[in-house]
């Protein structure tokens, strides 16, 4: 198998042998965001299962593909599925696709997800721009011997003081205002899952300063920042967290809400990609 850096080089070589354009912006699509791939012009789809060393995702409602193409005049590489630690993968394995986007040449990574609203000011159907996160799962892709292989992936001790790029945050806010889309900034708490949180856990997370909670994103963000990639995170609040509503929380509810606002979500993401070109 070789070390992680060798595997990344082999994965990258496979992709670049099929695609000539070098991507500038990477996108990772969370639950319900998969329809965004239809926005990509001149798409080239590479099945994730064909890429060497990329572990098989068990994600539903996706083509399980890396889609490379253009948004306006911006070269993008988009993953329509991700791995989760609740599936039994390690944080290093979850972060591998994000690292791969980095080796392909992206300078900016847009990460999306669906999350439960903890703040009472964040109703279902609103977008939350992630300004910071709390790693409640304790998972970190920089752990272990492989993360310190001569610095090829960046410093082992990653500065996370600005995990989410301030200029990208400003751009998203500007684009949202122009499009008339409601979006607020908040703190994302990442938990391991797959069970949803208890009301007591939600209360604890609110006390700690979290505005929303989900089961993804953080390992990918850490890996991207280690490689010097600018990160922007956008959550769709698809439900109220446990204890804040009498409704039962289900994954179907998450997908239903995302479907209802998908057009706005995809338009926002498209315009942010175009606007981020100036960075």
How many individual β-strands?
Answer: 9
Helical proportion? 25-40%
Q: Largest sheet at a glance?
A: 5 strands, mixed, barrel
The 3D shape can be described as globular
User: Could you state the order of secondary-structure elements as H and E?
Assistant: HEEEEHEEHEHEHEH
Mean residue pLDDT: 89
- SSE class: alpha/beta
CATH architecture: 3-Layer(aba) Sandwich
Low-pLDDT runs: none
CATH superfamily: Nucleoside phosphorylase domain
Question: Nearest-angstrom radius of gyration?
Answer: 18 Å
Strand percentage lies at 15-25%
Whole-Å distance between the termini?
Answer: 37 Å
What top-tier CATH class fits best?
Alpha Beta
Essential attributes:
five-stranded mixed beta barrel, 6 helices, 30% helix, globular
Q: How would you sum up this structure, described in words?
A:
With 279 residues, the chain is of the alpha/beta class. It has a single domain (4-278), classed as Rossmann fold (3-Layer(aba) Sandwich). The protein is 30% helix and 23% strand. It has 6 helices and 9 strands. It has a 5-stranded mixed β-barrel with strand order 5-8-7-6-9. Helix 4 links the parallel strand 7 (183-190) and strand 8. Helix 1 (4-16) packs across helix 2 (91-104), helix 2 (91-104) crosses helix 5 (218-226) and helix 3 packs across helix 6. It is globular, with a radius of gyration of 18 Å.
What does the secondary structure layout of this molecule look like, with pairings?
Blueprint: H1 4-16, E1 25-28, E2 41-47, E3 65-71, E4 74-79, H2 91-104, E5 108-117, E6 127-135, H3 166-179, E7 183-190, H4 199-208, E8 212-214, H5 218-226, E9 230-240, H6 251-275
Parallel strand pairs: 1-4, 1-5, 5-9, 6-7, 7-8
Antiparallel strand pairs: 2-3, 3-4, 5-8, 6-9
Helix pairs in contact: 1-2, 2-5, 3-6
């Amino acid at each position: 198998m070789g070390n992680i850096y060798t595997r990344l080089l082999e994965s990258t070589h496979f992709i670049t042998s099929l695609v000539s354009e070098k991507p500038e912006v990477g996108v990772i699509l969370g639950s319900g965001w998969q329809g965004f791939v239809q926005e990509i012009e001149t798409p080239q789809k590479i099945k994730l299962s064909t890429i060497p060393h990329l572990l098989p995702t068990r994600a539903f409602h996706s083509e399980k593909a890396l889609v490379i193409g253009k948004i306006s005049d911006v070269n993008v590489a988009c993953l329509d599925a991700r791995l989760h630690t609740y599936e039994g993968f390690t944080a290093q394995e979850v972060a591998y696709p994000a690292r791969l986007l980095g080796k392909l040449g992206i300078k900016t990574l847009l990460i999306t997800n669906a999350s439960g609203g903890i703040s009472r000011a964040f109703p279902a159907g609103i977008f939350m721009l992630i300004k910071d996160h709390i790693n409640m799962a304790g998972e970190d892709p920089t752990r272990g011997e492989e993360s310190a292989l001569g610095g090829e992936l960046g410093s082992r001790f990653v500065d996370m003081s600005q995990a989410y790029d301030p200029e990208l945050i400003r751009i998203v806010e500007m684009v949202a205002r122009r499009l008339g889309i409601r979006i607020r900034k908040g703190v994302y708490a990442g938990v391991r899952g797959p069970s949803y949180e208890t009301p007591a856990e939600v209360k604890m997370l609110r006390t700690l300063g979290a505005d929303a909670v989900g089961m993804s994103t953080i390992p990918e963000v850490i890996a991207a920042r280690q490689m010097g990639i600018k990160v922007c995170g956008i959550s769709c609040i698809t439900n109220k967290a446990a204890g804040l509503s009498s409704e039962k929380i289900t994954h179907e509810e998450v997908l239903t809400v995302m479907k209802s606002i998908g057009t706005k979500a995809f338009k926002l993401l498209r315009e942010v990609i175009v606007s981020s070109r100036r960075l």
